[in-house]
Amino acid sequence: MAEGTERRVRHRILTLNNLSARGLERLPRERYEVGAEVAEPQAILVRSADMHSMQLPRTLLAVGRAGAGVNNIPVAALARRGIPVFNAPGANANAVKELVLAGLLLAARNICPAWAFARSLSGEDAAIDEAVEAGKKKFVGFELPGRTLGVVGLGAVGVEVANSALALGMKVLGYDPQITVQRAWQLSSSVEQALSLDDLFARADVVSVHVPLNAETRGLVSEQRLKLMRKGGLILNFARAPIVDEQAVIAALDAGRLRGYVCDFPSNALKDHPRVVALPHLGASTQEAEENCAIMVADTLREFLENGNVRNCVNYPEAVLPRVAGATRLAIANSNVPNMVGQISTCLASARLNIADLLNKSRGEYAYTLIDTDGAVSEDLLGTIRRIEGVLSARLV
Q: What is the pTM for the complete model shown?
């Protein structure tokens, strides 16, 4: 570090995985120390590293995940400490959508077994030609127009998959009782709403799942729902492995009820099954997706550290407040209980500080408050606010 730079560095960020240089470039070196050996970090940037057994630094203010899923992060434990966890929703949506469509075409036209058959051929070209003509009937597939795709989960990826399938001539059913207004605007009006998951499975030739893994979605593709599908159906899973009941799928494949299963999660039970295409978790494995995820999470993290604003957060509400020029900003994470803002305001009033602007947002059992004051907040006053029962973290930004 150059002489004098250390005094200007305001934020230290620990990286647990290699991240795209284009993302890290969003964190100016004169203000950020970023690397795998950073001590006492205020933030952590992570891709796939498992943080569940990690001892979390006492200095930690935020965690940023360069991707969508956060199963490798102890989200609930961090929330209890007032630490937001950010992700990059939609940054890899196109990459995953393209792989889902590729998986659909691989299964529809039996590309993988056909390719394996072709690679196994030997002899003179004339003999190969004869074997091809005799063997190709085993790989007859189907075309997409007129077939029905059921999309479970209409977030960034699900919406793109649904819209693209329509463009390929498919009929599309969608199911997502928690679809956001933003995604609803992006979804084609030609996508038909399924009344329930059972309704979607009963009417679809192909089902593609695009939901996070949680207690409600674990085993969502179950034995009972597979029995509802038309014979010869396909299941596509590029979300998380446990969303699909693996043994139920294998049983349906072996019984001939299910035509194929395409997923991004190989296992011993799946990888050699003749009706399974199991890819090595390639969903977001494009240069563009890695760059997009790193850029998005770096920008989000920087906005939080420098201004206290919260976007793309999985455990705290979105809270964005333009700064009042010349004001002091307080950023407070707290339990979502009555009179928190009142108690904080009373502390500020006791110190004869006027509130220039205030924003309070809640999400489940947690809330987040941004306050701009017309005067400086002392360390003693900040300590008083931190001691309020229910305040989980408080800092001057």
A: 0.82
- Which CATH code for domain 1-92+286-315? 3.40.50.720
CATH superfamily, domain 93-278, is: NAD(P)-binding Rossmann-like Domain (3.40.50.720)
Confidence of residue 69 (pLDDT cuts 50, 70, 90): confident
pLDDT tens-place string over residues 344-393: 999 999 999 999 999 999 999 999 999 999 999 999 999 999 999 999 99
- The domain ranges of the chain are 1-92+286-315, 93-278, 319-397
Is the pLDDT score of 4 beyond 60? no
Q: How would you write the chain as a 3-class SS string? A: CCCCHHHHCCEEEEECCCCCHHHHCCCCCCCEEEECCCCCCCEEEECCCCCCCCCCCCCCCEEEECCCCCCCCCHHHHHHCCCCEECCCCCCHHHHHHHHHHHHHHHHCCHHHHHHHHHHCCCCHHHHHHHHHHHHHHHCCCCCCCCEEEEECCCHHHHHHHHHHHHCCCEEEEECCCCCHHHHHHCCCCCEECCCHHHHHHHCCEEEECCCCCCCCCCCECHHHHHHCCCCEEEEECCCHHHECHHHHHHHHHCCCEEEEEECCCCCCCCCCCCEEECCCCCCCCHHHHHHHHHHHHHHHHHHHHHCCECCECCCCCECCCCCCCCEEEEEEEECCCCHHHHHHHHHHHCCCCEEEEEEEEECCEEEEEEEECCCCCHHHHHHHHCCCCEEEEEEC
